């Protein structure tokens, strides 16, 4: 499937009417930016050492009551910020939004942009929204690539426009729709971010997420299955998004569950080297699944038996280099629920450690 297949499917799917707040506020900000940013473009004042904000040279502060309100209005007044103005903020004060629909940023793309920015100044301001819980810092709403490229160049400042887009489900939906229209959103971004939002309780069920985005629940389920792949494997497919659309990536995830990491990596290599079609990949996966149903048993490497009150209730087995199997039965319901919760917490905690290590 071509790389824009998911975007096409999403754009053709029935949409659930979005709550007006975030979109209306973004439209208001956009209207202000169109009218005022042009006047301020390129006219950035000197940096103030005591602040993370460098005010624009655009005359006195003007607050339009029917456009901004609440915390954002208070913030504008406190920081003498005129909505729509381009300002300079310290790069260290800018951080990724937990509701950013993008998760993956290709290193070669960032390096190419950094090379461009090294020869000419930043032309387009990023969009940020204040973190009202930690004043003086900002969430990136649009411009994640530019921020990463400037950091690669070890720059200290970034041009920005501050907008009123509250963090949360609505800001995610807004960014998701914009990225989908621009065909920059990938199934791999969706896989990781959707899984995180469900794990964090932003959406209680897959159906709730599907309803909010106006897509089929089966699409959500298939996408989340892709999110179970190791991130290194996902990044390999990201390098060839022309070959790894929704269906092919999902087929790889099924193969991974059936055959493990090594076999799945070999399949990815074969898809790239032989330019396999979706149909060919599905045939390979189907043949693998048929073979796995043959009456054969894998030899485990380690075995731990579990007993409850002297009665055997299950076992834990390890296979190969990367497989662990735990089987428990005939448990009291209360004990089953406790174990389920603890297993979930352990896996989540260890996954976070791996994530933190990669970032370091």
TrEMBL record:
Gene3D superfamilies given in the database record: 1.10.10.2830, Conserved hypothetical protein from pyrococcus furiosus pfu- 392566-001, ParB domain
Ranges where the F-box domain occurs: 223-271
Keywords tagged on the record: Chromosome partition
PANTHER family listed in its UniProt record: CHROMOSOME-PARTITIONING PROTEIN PARB-RELATED
Protein source organism: Caballeronia novacaledonica
Stated name of the protein: ParB/RepB/Spo0J family partition protein
Record keyword Disulfide bond present: no
One GO biological process term: chromosome segregation
Similarity annotation: Belongs to the ParB family.
GO-annotated molecular function: DNA binding
Entry GO CC: chromosome
């Amino acid at each position: 499937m071509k790389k824009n297949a998911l975007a096409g499917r999403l754009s053709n799917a029935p949409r659930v009417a979005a709550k007006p707040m975030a979109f209306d506020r973004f439209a208001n900000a956009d209207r202000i930016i169109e009218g005022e940013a042009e006047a301020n473009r390129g006219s950035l004042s000197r940096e103030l050492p005591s602040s993370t904000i460098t005010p624009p040279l655009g005359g006195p502060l003007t607050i339009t009551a029917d456009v901004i309100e609440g915390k954002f209005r208070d913030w504008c007044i406190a920081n003498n910020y005129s909505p729509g103005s381009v300002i300079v903020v310290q790069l260290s004060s800018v951080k990724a939004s937990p509701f950013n629909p993008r998760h993956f940023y290709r290193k070669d793309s960032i390096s190419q942009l950094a090379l461009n920015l090294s020869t000419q100044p930043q032309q387009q301001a990023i969009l940020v929204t204040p973190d009202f819980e930690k004043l003086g810092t900002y969430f990136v709403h649009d411009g994640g690539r530019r921020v990463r490229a400037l950091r690669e160049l070890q720059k200290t400042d970034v041009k920005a426009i501050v907008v009123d887009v509250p963090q949360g489900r609505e800001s995610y939906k807004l960014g998701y729709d914009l990225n989908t229209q621009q065909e920059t959103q990938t199934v791999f971004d969706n896989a990781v971010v959707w899984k995180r939002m469900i794990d964090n309780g932003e959406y209680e069920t897959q159906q709730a997420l599907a309803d909010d985005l106006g897509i089929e629940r089966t699409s959500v389920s298939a996408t989340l299955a892709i999110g179970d792949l190791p991130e290194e494997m996902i990044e390999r497919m990201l390098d060839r998004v022309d070959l790894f659309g929704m269906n092919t990536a999902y087929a790889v995830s099924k193969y991974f569950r059936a055959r493990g990491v090594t076999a799945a990596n070999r399949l990815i290599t074969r898809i790239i080297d032989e330019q396999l079609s979706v149909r060919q990949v599905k045939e390979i996966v189907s043949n693998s699944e048929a073979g796995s149903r043959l009456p054969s048993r894998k030899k485990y490497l380690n075995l731990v038996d579990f007993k409850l009150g002297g009665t055997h209730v299950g076992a834990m087995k390890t296979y190969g280099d990367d497989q662990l199997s735990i089987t428990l039965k005939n448990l009291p319901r209360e004990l089953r629920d406790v174990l389920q919760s603890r297993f979930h917490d352990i896996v989540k905690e260890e996954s976070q450690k791996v994530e933190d290590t990669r970032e370091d």
